[in-house]
Amino acid sequence: MTATAGKVTMAKALNAALRDSLAADERVIVFGEDVGQLGGVFRITDGLLADFGDKRCFDTPLAEAGIVGFAVGLAMSGLRPVVEMQFDAFAYPAFEQITSHVAKLRNRTRGQLSVPIVIRVPYAGGIGGVEHHCDSSEAYYAHTPGLKVVMPATVADAYSLLREAIADPDPVVFMEPKKLYFASEEVTLPATMPGFGRAVVRRPGRDATLVTYGAAVPVALEAAEAARDEGWDLEVIDLRTIVPFDDETVTASVRRTGRCVVIQEAQGFAGVGAEIAARVQERCFHSLHAPVLRVAGLDIPYPAPKLEHIHLPGVDRILDAVARLQWDDQPDPTWVAA
Amino acid sequence: MTTTPQAIRRASPRTNRAAARPEPAAPLLPSPEPVRLLDEAGRRVSPECAVRDYPEPPTETLRELYRRMVIGRRFDVQATALTKQGRLAVYPSSRGQEACQVSGVMAVRPTDWVFPTYRESVALVSRGIDPVEVLTLLRGDWHCGYDPAAWRTAPQCTPLATQTVHAAGLAYGEAHQGRDTVALVFIGDGATSEGDFHEGVNFAAVFRAPVVFFVQNNRYAISVPLSRQTAAPTLAYKGVGYGIASEQVDGNDPVAVLAVLANAVEHARSGHGPFLVEAHTYRLEPHTNADDASRYRSMDEVETWLGRDPIARLETYLRGAGALDDAAVDAVAAEAEAYAADLRTRMNADPVVDPLSLFDHVYAQPTPQLLEQRAQVRAELAAAEEGEA
Asked: Is Metal-binding found in the keyword set (chain B) (predicted)?
């Protein structure tokens, strides 16, 4: 185990999780584009080749469908592959392998084959990236039965959830918020946090619930802090995993607060936030004092860097949504026909 | 040595330079013509243009090849009949391709892995898998009816060429763990146009994974002819671009197909990396029972290929060699009839599938949401039962 205490970045925590998983289980192998000698374009696999050798950590041809399909075969042979997709949008060539094979093999074979693969996807924007480097693609995966979709937002969760993903018997799409890679927190590693399917209340509050995950969590927390000035005491729930989904924690919170805003960085239409809003409405209808609102990215292709701040859900847009939660029991003017 | 004008030209400095520099791709190239050990009349021929030596498999092996081809064809005809009777949703026949279907599984060991497509039902029964389990996918009670881990046979792949990459990974993973397993992948001519074919062959080549890519070029991808899949001289030439050895073979010559595949498997197992084999063959039936082949090919063409029947060819050869007589042929035919009769009986039973099993293998443990849906379906079923009572 890599015992670490003090300020640690998410990138270092992910590296430690890979390192500890490689040391703990000889079936674990790590591969992808530039993950060997270079240590990954974000250095998440830094030093793994040197420390574990090229049978455990290696570079592959530049072909994402090949990487994921290769992982399927390796998993069939009894190994536990952890693959890196270099950027969110570069994972799309692997989509068929992920949706038709990784996700379905257990089901197709009535459990006689399983493919415990972890597909790491650096995702989301806010880093000034050029096109095809900033997508939030979680909805595609969450819509696919058979995949688990994990969205850490904190350093301790990044470590703990990645360890759990690698040990999990099912395939996991592990979404890493690039913007938070180099944010640091005081943590002690190895850390064991609540497992898959357990949301966490990051900030307790009485007046409304902000439900969010991944890259949007720090933004929601910032908004909740700012809302104090407006006299609102907001609860913030970090889902941590989208699949499995923790209805219980979300439902309990919204029944208590009576108001809910769902926040995601991904474009809103047909997104994960829409699913959450529907689930909250189904389960909490009689506790709600206002419609469930969503704050999401705009329904546009991810914009060029100079305009991404318009696209990304920020504190102001979240506070605007909170202001529309019918505190005076009047209809939301947004929806009143002109 | 007499000096002729030709000899002078041969000895020119330019030609000498070329001769001194070895062509690195040469050992990878296939034979210029498909390898053939039996001609269309079942006579033994020597493959003069073959770039490798292909010893004839032992007679006992050829007798077994014949037996399995006859049973395989009887199975195929029975499966087509079961489709017409409504017992199967659909059936993609491989009639006419028995030399490839059977040789593909006879060339590997039970401990090797096979990656079939939907057209490999004959290969699967030839591997020993229960025909009812093979037809489960097409009968529609589950996707894969046999245990892939026990049979070391992947589920039949319906998306094209995706299994080539799985085979590369599996073969590399087995070698990584110190086992000498070979992976044999069946694919068709159409699938060689897919990106995953390229990625699978390339990964296998780069990692020197022991994979045999076995392309059954049956001339059509549903209706689209080979000329729309490739401009390569033949599909076997695709190997050289990835740095892997390749061969082409007459796919209706069972002796040659088995000999070429045996060489390819040995090449892979002994650490020389992957191997690509293209078998030139023909799909006598439409793509499936739902297809109308008269829209894209002539009966004359089909007739021509009927004359190249692989079973008749091997039977003629074995009879001529004194390795097969009327009694042996009749015994195999009787065995095939009994096999088909047993299959008919068992396929005429209606399988009972528990609807609640829909939730069993989505994840190792169902999510809370799946448990809710399971309870809902259970309630629906109970209500329906109550309504009937």
From this structure: no
Indicate whether A212 and A313 sit together in one domain.
yes
CB within 8 Å: A66 and B361: no
- Residues A245-299 have pLDDT tens digits of 999 999 999 999 999 999 999 999 999 999 999 999 999 999 999 999 999 999 9
Last residue in a domain, options A158, A189, A220: A189
A133's torsion region: left (phi>0), alpha (psi -120 to 50) or beta? alpha
Expressed as residue numbers, the domain containing A209 is 200-327
A85 in Cβ contact with A94 (< 8 Å) = yes
* pLDDT per residue as tens digits for the range A316-333: 999 999 999 999 988 888
Which of B170, B176, B364 comes nearest A114 by C-beta? B364
Interacting residues of A181 by C-beta distance below 8 A, sequence separation 6+: A9, A10, A11, A42, A44, A122
| Residue A166 shares a structural domain with residue A247 | no
**Cis status, amide bond into A244, omega within 30 of 0:** yes
Regarding whether A159 and A62 lie in a shared domain, the answer is: yes
Nearest to B162 among A60, A96, A169 (CB): A96
pLDDT < 70: residue spans in chain A: 1-2, 337-338
A69, B171: Cβ pair inside 8 Å?
no
For residue B208, give how far its alpha carbon lies from the nearest alpha carbon of chain A (Å).
13
Does the annotation count B287 as an active-site position?
A: yes
Hey, are the CB atoms on B170 and A170 less than 8 Å from each other? no
Q: Please name the helix (run of DSSP H) or strand (run of DSSP E) that holds residue A262, with its range, or none.
A: strand A260-267
Strand-strand pairing, B224-225 and B220-221: antiparallel
The distance of A319 to chain B (nearest Cα, Å) reads: 31
Q: Does A254 map to a domain?
A: yes
Give the pLDDT of residue A338: 56
What's the total number of domains in chain A? 2
Angle at B172 between CA B170 and CA B176, to 5 degrees: 115
Last residue of a domain, one of A130, A163, A189: A189
